[in-house]
Predict the structure of MerR family transcriptional regulator.
Amino acid sequence: MGNMPDAADTDGLTVGQVSKRLGVTVRALHHWDEVGLARPSLRTAAGYRLYTAGDLERLHRVVVYRELGLGLDRIRDVLEDPAADVPGALRAQRAQVDERIDRLQRLGAGLDRMIDAQEHGLLLTTEQQAAVFGPQWNPDWPARARQLYGGTTQWTQYAERSASRGPEEWRAVAEAVACLERALGDAMDAGVEPGSPEANRLVERHREVFASYFPLTRRMQVCLGRMYEADPGFAAHYDGIRAGLAAWFRRIVDADARAHGIDPDTASWR
Amino acid sequence: MGNMPDAADTDGLTVGQVSKRLGVTVRALHHWDEVGLARPSLRTAAGYRLYTAGDLERLHRVVVYRELGLGLDRIRDVLEDPAADVPGALRAQRAQVDERIDRLQRLGAGLDRMIDAQEHGLLLTTEQQAAVFGPQWNPDWPARARQLYGGTTQWTQYAERSASRGPEEWRAVAEAVACLERALGDAMDAGVEPGSPEANRLVERHREVFASYFPLTRRMQVCLGRMYEADPGFAAHYDGIRAGLAAWFRRIVDADARAHGIDPDTASWR
DNA sequence: CTTGACCCTCACGTCGCGTGAGGCCGGAGG
DNA sequence: CCTCCGGCCTCACGCGACGTGAGGGTCAAG
């Protein structure tokens, strides 16, 4: 029962004592003093702030309303304006809170979509995938693609696009791809020569269509052409359209690249 | 098919055109340029920013991630660091969003409590009220009090306190009030004179107990004393404790006020 | 040549403090 | 007496993502 460090019967508490009592920082008290929201009625000769019981009363009200998320200006109104519409201000604040919750929930839903896209590469159900991509589609492909390419910049960009695509959009992409592949097959059949304007137009068109997945530079396209030929799965796909299409495609891509000053034999993905 | 105002085939779009296409403000584009997040690759001779197709690509990605709530620094990482853990960043963001939703929901609950307190004055069910305040309690009183005093500073302060009180706390308040009233009755019976130290101590104690509702100045206490005597409801309550207690209470309050330099006949509530 | 729409670069304001920097005050110990 | 340490003071900048002018060039059309 010795003299307590912060006796309640003195006529004022210092900032540190108040800060402990109310659970706010000293800086906050300084700030509220600066802006005139809650000032101590006393100062010691040395300039120390001294908060009286009445000041504590007011500070406590400030803390209460701050915990409700009101801005300092609004709190000032509530504390000082006897005509302040406190219930109105509270309801307005409530409405704002609901709004912000809504926005955050939509934001969370968007994040979930994007995370899903990053993890699965495709946001369609197996049935939707079958309906959109046709019978030759293998639902394991996205997972396999992620295993191979997950973590690359291109996978990230692909996922960004996937997140904003529904069945409709995917159908349009699949249609464009199918249309291009038909055109490639027809051109090869028609004897279009690598390096010819027609071949180069097709190469250009391939880059544009492929941009549905991610932006493709000409160098990357060269690598892609070589992979289409070398990878058994891709080769089988293209040669299934026309025998030799994979090799022919590589040749028209290489020719187009050369025409743009790129050596296809040394071109790298990045 | 005339020349469009923002032809897509020119080699750059100005800030205004980009702003319309992407739905962001011109200032945001300036800002992203300033901080180096997304700069135009071209400028006209006059200094106009010109965004190329590639720039638009990058801008679009910025917009996407900004809509997911990522900070500009994090977006920069995602766009530029090929080793950036994009799914990780997204999940961290998701966790933050959930946290913020939680905080907002708690905040909303607090607001609801406070609004309720402002509107009803008491957050207890009718049964709880009966259990806490005893059989002579009338559940219409809070509503009536709000009709009379709603909108005053004191009602607001009373509501603030009510919002943070449960049945326990109300029981303590009711107990303190009952105890005080017993003491008042006993003192009157014992012939305590208005103006005596004992009477003044009781007046002081009344102010302290009453502070459970809202802070009471001595002037306000004087008005209260007069109302206790004049209002039939209050008078009946106090005279029900002891015949003449309302009038005696007014007299001890008046005397205490006079002893503190207040003229009870001209004292006003505010 | 003028007009009006568009563009530029500063540069301060927002909101509620956090975080030092530099220095004074006050009580305890040597 | 001096010193030390913890607490207090007053500046004053920083944060995050721009909003909002001020003051002044630029461009296409009438």
